[in-house]
Amino acid sequence: MRRYLLLAWVLAGLVAGGAALLAGQGEAARWIWSTAALPVAAHVGIGLVGSLLGGRIGVDAVALAAILGAVLLDESAAAAVIGLMVAGGEALEAWAEGRATRALTDLVARAPRHAARLNGEGVEEIDAAAIRPGDRLLVRPGETVAADGLLEDAAATLDESMLTGEPLPVTFHHGAALRSGGVNAGAAFRMRATQDAERSAYAAILRLTEQAAASRAPLARLADQWAFGFVVFTGVLAAGAWLVTGDPLRALAVLVVATPCPLILAAPVALVAGIGRAARRGIVVKGGGALERLARVRTVLFDKTGTLTPGRPRLAALDADPAIGREAALRLAGAIAQGSTHPVSAALVAAATARGMVLPVPETVAEVAGGGVTGMVEGHTLLLGAEGFLHAAGIDPQAGFGVAAQVAAAAGSVAWLAMDGRVVAAFVMADGVRQEAPRAVRRLRALGVQRIVLVTGDRAAAGASLGRALRLDEVFSGQAPADKIAVVRSEAAAAPTAMVGDGVNDAPALAAADVGIAMGAAGTAAAAEAGDVVLLVDRVDRAAEAIAIARRSRRVALQAIALGMGMSGIAMGFAAAGWLAPLAGALVQEAIDVFAILYALGALRPGPEEQAPHALPAEAGLVERHEEHAGLRRLAEALREGAEAIGPAPDCLPALAALERRLRSEVLPHQQEEERALYPEAARRLGGRDPMAPLIRMHAEIEALTERIATLLRLAEHNGAWGGISAELRRTLFALEALLRLHLTVEEEMLAELQGPQAGD
Prior knowledge:
With about 750 residues, the chain is of the alpha+beta class. The chain has 26 helices and 22 strands. Among the domains are: about 315-430, Calcium-transporting ATPase, cytoplasmic domain N (3-Layer(aba) Sandwich); about 620-755.
């Protein structure tokens, strides 16, 4: 407010002095202008004394000398304009910072202060600070969720745009975890608090926001670093012009145009603009210093579980005793797994239910933590668990399952199923890769990151598999927290380094890196506290976006400084040569200041390298087509099983005929709908001559292989030449399975950037 009052004072003085001059009261005009300028000089002088007491000289010394010199040399109009330049520059800086930090201030303004607690049949209004875990809360339309908790009603719709940057409301269902800070965009709903307000997600975000607003960046301190040299240069040039010409007005003109507002204001405005833009994308940067360090990053290290992978295992493959078959083995495993809370058990239950299996209820279930689960299902004694768990029960897991064991060693872990004392199935589990992870790595490469490294506590085989999939430069496996710190420090010795992680064990490494980037949406509080940057959205590609925003902000800041000071330097030359009077110089410098600050505000806009294609409209059907991919992957699994079932006799023909009918009823309509609506819209947004051509060519090959399977089946039924047909049919089924899996993966990758916001983003 003081800045705006000072500006109003100077403006009023300029207008009043101008009116007095027009009225023929020249002497009064000079007094009014001097009176308008001197309070600004006092304001600048107080700030300069504070700088000197702090052991540094500020560039404000030039502005103070210019105002006092103009008053002493009877250039009161110039003094008033210089005062307007200084006061206007500070007011413009306050406005620019307010616009740049709007996202941060909006976060603070929306902090929930009250809540409605359900007490028996009634509702009582309480302060948010009074919420305790276990309280049942009523969130009415338009209210902000005051504490983290679990949804008790069937559904709730929340606007989380201030948390995640995603513009569309997200629908949550019964039992979903709700984060504080979301705004109820639907009907009233009930929830049960799991944290008090001070320990909830939104309170943590506000603490991070306060840290982000509190620090100054190294780049913002350029004025302090260059002040002495700049003041000396300006003094020498002004004194030289005076000595050579004997005209003190030339020295005054040099001082006027040398007032370094671009140096003082441009850098902090650009960096704060970058922090504000990052906040709108669900990225909290803890201050300008962190933003500038982020802009310099050349090496990025990633944790594995929960960062590059979802942290939730899935069924990748299974092998079963032919006597019971794969489907029956998965059904039994899913049934016994219902009695366990282990993530592997949850994955097996999910895989079974996804295939439409009705799982029987297990009996006498007992779980051994970290080992496995036992119980009775349909009269059979089942054991499901790790190799050591079965060994302890006197069962050799690998008897008859050597191939599955080798696959497990290369790609993931195995859950073994034993029935009545004999191993009958092996389930290969894998964590998979986050859908956005490959795109995040490619974007980092495009941004000039020279080295991308995986640092994980997982086994070497799992780390190497992920490193190959993402084309990482190096993989460090089996790393304890202390080992991770050593790797981070080793990499930081060679280049500025960022570490991305989400767990408690990542916190020390995040703190050791030049920049720690914490996955704060689903990660731990320890990681968020240790990180310099916190991703409020559970997407690892926001790490690359944070670096892109930081680089643009720093580049815009340096450009604004260079352009502003370059123009000031040219004006100083003109002033020293006598081609620019003090009053005209003040007006020129005012225009330079406005230009530099407005240019710095350009950091609020994304650069060309940050532009992404717009999301597809709903009528393109991207969401529906991607939902069908799960069924198509199950069909690919059936293709492989069908190929493996082909034997010397044609008894598998009915099953293969049913498989061919599934291809025609599931795959071909899916492809036709993609080419009708989805691909044309995607091509318009992706650009290029024919971006969808590879996918359409794959469609054609899939159709050709489907037709080939139909032809081979007809030949087998009518000619009876099964011996000559079976080998070709097996090869064709395997080829179609591989092509279908590849096509689904490539399509999802190509169209990933065109998806709208999804629940949980």
